[in-house]
Every structure is written in structure tokens, then in C-alpha cells.
Design goal:
By secondary structure, the protein is an alpha/beta fold. About 40% of the residues lie in helices and about 15% in strands. It is built from 15 helices and 15 strands. An eight-stranded parallel β-barrel has the order 1-2-3-4-5-7-12-13, surrounded by six helices. A five-stranded mixed beta sheet has the order 6-8-11-10-9, with helices on one face. It is globular. The termini are close together. Bound molecules: 6-O-phosphono-beta-D-glucopyranose. GO terms for molecular function: 6-phospho-beta-galactosidase activity; beta-glucosidase activity.
Length: about 475
């Protein structure tokens, strides 16, 4: 890489990401309604999302740290049930509404641009109990909530509708690792992905119709899929099908506003294998098509890639939620199985560390949808069991992880990709959905007893990159 190629564009956003439920705390107070996670975590009794990183009270300190460390963009999400406690109440909760005004004002005063997501895994419990996005009511309620937020917060100019529709459906309907999770229901997974994309489309159309300034898009969790053996037809097919499920289905709905024949064939076949069928209403498809050209930006959350082998056995998934390496298993009937590669390192949670996958992904999007001009890496980061030693956290591995992903991002930019920014997951240590607090991603270490923030070595390194707009090698 030449000196010039190691330089970031002058308006590149050096961001960091958070999500309401994972950092705010005050999950059932100040008028906030319940989300499905509340009862689920209570029942499990393993960990609580209260007070998590206490962002509800400590956001001024976190934003001060952003400013101090050159982080000029922050991803935050609005907790839907802080605004509408039951998802669709006649009157919003004024305390919740006021909280986000204060938060956005603080962002402005610190020169940190807020990138705001409307739904980050936290559907209000009342809607969840009715079937979440498998029920039309959630779609209607989401559009109403989105309209309310667009009108209420003109100070926000970067909006994302959903965070990781794929993660929602895979955890709820395939792996069964989230509240009231079902397993191996690919029919429900595809149906919910479609319905959430319709809700997204309706929010995009509302944004357009109301003439709000700024940009709107969606954040997708994307992973590049590779055949374990590129010469084996079965492995190639496994990678293709898994790509449709994880990437192609959602990307087509976003960019094309329709599904290709190949995608529909695959979705219908997998739904039938799971014993169900998909229902796409004509008006849904009209809304997808109408909204597609009004997507201004796309957020890419990239953590890992997958190598697949052909697989004939029964469904067999096991999620590593302990950090005990080698315990993850993902094999789906009709698709394939994920395999480890000895030459590719993995985190303690078995997430494959493959920075080139980010480049391959971005370039694939640029090739398939060349008109798309505003891409962000909205999440990327590495979990580890960080230890505070004599007031410091030496997280060399995280620095290496971020550096290598930025290097591949720069290569994509040099080759014409319109990547406008990068957000480290996460700004500070936060609550992790299946893992609680032993899986840390933050640039800032949080002592969960005292809520003290301590900059890790990665925070100092990232600050230098942001300040110099240059990637050291
Ligand atoms: C992304 C989510 O999928 O990955 C975050 O947007 C999440 O909310 C992050 O925390 C890491 O996942 P986990 O399970 O390791 O916390």
C-alpha cells in the first residue's frame, strides 16, 4: 500500500457504535415500556441489562471522550419503547422523547455527528407478544414510530431504520438463541426478513414524503460466503445458498425493491423444507419497489466471513455464548455447514477473523449496485476478555483487527468504493445479548461496578488514526 493509499478521504467519518438496550440502562423506568429481552433475561437469571453502561446518565461523559479521542460520529439507537411504551400508544412518553433531545444536543455540542437507528433488536414487548414482525401490526406501528421520530428530531440528519434484520431472524427463528427463540424455521426467517423490509420501505417512503433533510438507509449484517473447496460443486452451492439467505435476499429488497428468480426459488425451497410457505402481498412488493430508489445510504456491519462445505445431515447449530473456543457449530439442512480453517484465526467466540471478507463484500456491492454512493461500515470490532491491569488495557489484538479491516476498507476506497465512514463496535464496553459482560468490544473499558471509563490502548491508537487520517502499517 502506498503512502497515498493509506490516507483516508478528508470527510471520512471515524465513528464508534452503541445501541440503546446495550448501554442505556434504566430499562423499565422513566416511562419506558418493556421489551422481550426484559423477561427473558429475568427468567434466565444470568445477567441484566441494567444499568449496562449507564449511558442514560453518562452520555455527556461518553461524548466528551468521543470529542477528546477524535471520534466524530456515533451510532446510537432510539429505544422504541422509551417513545411508545407499548409500541403503538396514542401518546408518546414525554420523558423518553426529551431524553433523546438532550442526547442529540450533547452530540452537537461535542461535534460528534449522531447516526441514529430506529430499531436495534428491541421491539416493544407488547408487539413482540403479538408475533413481532410476523404480524402486520408491527409494520404499521413501526411506520408510525418512524414518522414520529423524523418529525420530532429534525436535529438528526442520518437515519437508519433497522439494525441487522438478518441477526434478528437468525437468532429468533434459526438458532433460537434470542427470546422465545424458535429453531430451524427458515420459513419464518424469510417471512420476517421480508416483513421487516416492508416496514423499512414504508419508513423510507414516509421520510421522502415528509421531505426530511438528511439521509436514510438500513444497516445489514453481511458476511462473505466462500466455498471451502472452490473446486467442489457442493461447497460452491452451499456458499451460494447461504449467501442468498444472509445477504442477497436483503440486498435485493433494499437496492432493487424486488427479489430475483434465483432468490425466490431458494427462499421458497428452504421455507418448504422447514414446513412453511412465504407470503408476499402485492402491495408489499409495490412498496419495496417504490422505496428502493430513495435509500440514500447503506450501513454494513461486518464481523466475519464463513467458509462452507456441502452437508446432508440434520440441522445442527450450537451457539458459543461462553467464549470457550471451538464450541460453535452451524450446519443447516438444505444449505451447508460452516467450517473452520486452520490458517484463519478466530475470536474466543469462534468468529472468524477475515478482513479481506470486508473488501470482497464492499466490492461485490459496488459491482452489483454501482449507482450506490453512500456506504458506511456501521459496525466492525473484536470481542475479547479484556483485563484491566494497573489502570491499563493492552488490547493489541483489537488494534490489529481494526487496522487490518481499515486497510482493506482503504483498498476498496482506492478502487472506487464510496465508503464514507467506519464505526468501531463498540464505543465503550456494553452489554452483549447472549454473553452479558464478559465479551468486551469497547474502545473504552467500563468498570461495571463503578461505571468508570478507562481508555484502552485501542482508543489511543484509533484517536491517532483519526487525527492523522492515515493508517500506520
Ligand atoms: C452486532 C449487533 O450484531 O454485533 C450488536 O449489532 C452486537 O448489537 C454485536 O452486540 C456483537 O454481537 P455480540 O453477540 O458479540 O454482542
Amino acid at each position: 500500500m502506498t503512502q497515498e493509499d493509506a490516507r483516508f478521504p478528508k470527510d471520512f467519518v471515524f465513528g464508534a457504535a452503541t445501541a440503546a438496550y446495550q448501554c442505556e440502562g434504566e430499562t423499565r423506568t422513566h416511562g419506558k415500556g418493556k421489551v422481550a429481552w426484559d423477561d427473558y433475561l429475568d427468567e434466565k437469571g444470568l445477567f441484566s441489562a441494567d444499568p449496562a453502561s449507564d449511558f442514560y446518565h453518562r452520555y455527556p461523559e461518553d461524548l466528551r471522550l468521543c470529542q477528546e479521542y477524535g471520534i466524530n460520529g456515533i451510532r446510537v439507537s432510539i429505544a422504541w419503547s422509551r417513545i411508545f411504551p407499548n409500541g403503538d400508544d396514542p401518546v408518546p412518553n414525554s420523558e423518553g422523547v426529551a431524553f433523546y433531545h438532550r442526547l442529540f444536543a450533547e452530540c452537537r455540542s461535542r461535534g460528534v455527528e449522531p447516526y441514529v437507528t430506529l430499531h436495534h433488536f428491541d421491539s416493544p414487548d407488547a408487539l413482540y407478544r403479538e408475533g413481532d414482525f410476523l404480524n402486520q401490526h408491527a409494520i404499521d406501528a413501526f411506520e408510525r414510530y418512524a414518522r414520529f421520530c423524523f418529525a420530532e428530531y429534525p436535529e438528526v440528519t442520518h437515519w437508519f431504520t433497522f439494525n441487522e434484520i438478518w441477526a434478528v431472524v437468525s437468532n429468533m427463528y434459526i438458532e433460537g438463541t434470542w427470546p422465545r427463540g424458535q429453531r430451524y424455521r427458515l420459513d419464518l426467517a424469510f417471512q420476517a426478513m421480508h416483513n421487516m423490509m416492508v416496514a423499512h420501505a414504508r419508513a423510507v417512503l414516509a421520510f421522502e414524503e415528509l421531505g426530511h433533510p438528511g439521509s436514510i438507509g438500513v444497516v445489514h449484517a453481511l458476511s462473505t460466503k466462500y466455498p471451502d473447496d472452490p473446486a467442489a460443486a457442493g461447497d460452491v452451492e452451499a456458499a451460494r445458498i447461504d449467501d442468498v439467505l444472509n445477504n442477497q435476499f436483503l440486498l435485493e429488497a433494499t437496492f432493487d425493491g424486488r427479489y430475483s428468480e434465483e432468490t425466490l426459488d431458494c427462499a421458497n425451497r428452504l421455507a418448504a423444507l422447514a414446513g412453511g410457505r412465504l407470503e408476499f402481498l402485492p402491495e408489499d412488493l409495490e412498496q419495496l419497489a417504490a422505496a428502493a430508489p430513495h435509500n440514500d445510504c447503506l450501513g454494513i456491519n461486518y464481523y466475519q466471513s464463513n467458509f462452507l462445505k456441502a452437508y446432508d445431515g440434520p440441522n445442527d447449530c450450537h451457539h458459543n455464548s461462553t467464549g470457550e473456543k471451538g464450541t460453535e457449530r452451524h450446519a443447516l439442512q438444505g444449505i451447508g455447514e460452516y467450517v473452520a480453517r486452520p490458517e484463519i484465526p478466530r475470536t474466543d467466540w469462534d468468529w472468524m477473523i477475515y478482513p479481506q471478507g470486508l473488501y470482497d463484500l464492499v466490492m461485490r456491492i459496488c459491482r452489483q449496485w454501482p449507482h450506490y454512493k453512500e456506504l458506511y461500515v456501521t459496525e466492525n470490532g473484536m470481542a475479547s476478555k479484556d483485563r484491566l491491569e494497573e489502570g491499563a488495557v493492552h488490547d493489541e489484538e483489537r488494534i490489529h483487527y481494526i487496522r487490518e479491516h481499515l486497510r482493506w476498507a482503504l483498498k476498496a476506497i482506492a478502487e472506487g468504493a464510496h465508503l464514507r465512514g467506519y464505526f468501531v463496535w463498540s464505543l465503550m464496553d456494553v452489554f452483549s445479548w447472549n454473553n452479558g459482560y464478559n465479551k468486551r468490544y469497547g474502545l473504552f473499558y467500563v468498570d461495571f461496578d463503578t461505571q468508570e471509563r478507562i481508555p484502552k490502548d485501542s482508543a489511543r491508537w484509533y484517536a491517532k488514526v483519526a487525527q492523522e487520517r492515515f493508517l500506520d502499517t
